[in-house]
Amino acid sequence: MHNFRIGHGYDVHRLTEGRELILGGVHIPHTTGLLGHSDADVLAHAIADALLGALALGDIGKHFPDTDPQYKGADSLKLLAAVATLLRTKGYQIGNVDATILAQKPKLAPHIGVMCQNLADAMDISVEQVSVKATTEEGLGFTGELQGMAAHAVCLVYKP
Ligand code: MG
C-alpha cells in the first residue's frame, strides 16, 4: 500500500466593482474584482481545499472562518502556506497540484507563470509541481455572464 492520497477543491467568488482582482497572488488589472472576506483569491482557495481534502481535514472555511476578523482581507497565499505546513506536520509531502480557473475575462495567459511561481513558493514546492490553466465557459453560466469566477484543483500528496 503506497501512502498516496488525492484531493479535490472547488471554489467560487462573486465579481464586483471596487475590488482588486487577485488570482494566484497576482494583482491583475481589471474593471472588477472578486468579493470575499479575505482577498478572495479563488485559485488559492481551491488549491488549499484540495490539500485539506487529500487528508480529510475539512476545508479552508473550517480552518480560517470568514467570521474571524483576523482573516479579513487576508492574503490567501498565506492561508495556503499554512495549509501546506499543516500537511507536512501530518507527515505528508505534496506531489503535484493541477488547477483550472473558469473566467470569461480578462485574458489570464500572461499571468499564469507568475501564479504558478507564487503558489509554488507558498506551498514550498518547485514550480514544476504546479499547473494552472484557465478557460472560459464560452459565455455560459455565471462565469460567462461575468457574475463570478470559479476554480477547480486536484492534488496528489504522499507520505515518504
Ligand atoms: Mg473562497
What does this structure look like?
29% of the residues lie in helices and 30% in strands. The model has no long low-confidence stretch (mean pLDDT 96). Helix 3 crosses helix 4 (112-123). With 160 residues, it is of the alpha+beta class. The radius of gyration is 15 Å and the shape is globular. The strands form 2 sheets. It has a 5-stranded mixed sheet with strand order 4-1-7-5-6. It has a two-stranded antiparallel ribbon with strand order 2-3. The protein is built from 5 helices and 7 strands. It has helices at residues 42-54, 60-63, 76-89, 112-123, 141-144, and strands at residues 4-16, 21-23, 26-28, 33-34, 93-102, 130-135, 148-158. The structure holds magnesium ion (MG). The site of magnesium ion has 5 residues, from strand 1 and helix 1.
Beta-strand level of the residues, as a percent range? 25-35%
Radius of gyration: 15 Å
Q: Give the low-confidence spans.
A: none
* Mean of residue pLDDT values: 96
For the largest beta-sheet, the strand count, sense and barrel status come to: 5 strands, mixed
Q: Separation of termini? A: 12 Å
Assembly category: single chain
Number of helices: 5
Helix coverage percent = 25-40%
Neighbour order of strands in the largest sheet:
4-1-7-5-6
Q: Structural class, from secondary structure content?
A: alpha+beta
Bound small molecules, deduplicated: magnesium ion
What is the count of β-strands? 7
Short description:
This protein is of the alpha+beta class and 160 residues long. Helix content is 29%, strand content 30%. The structure holds magnesium ion.
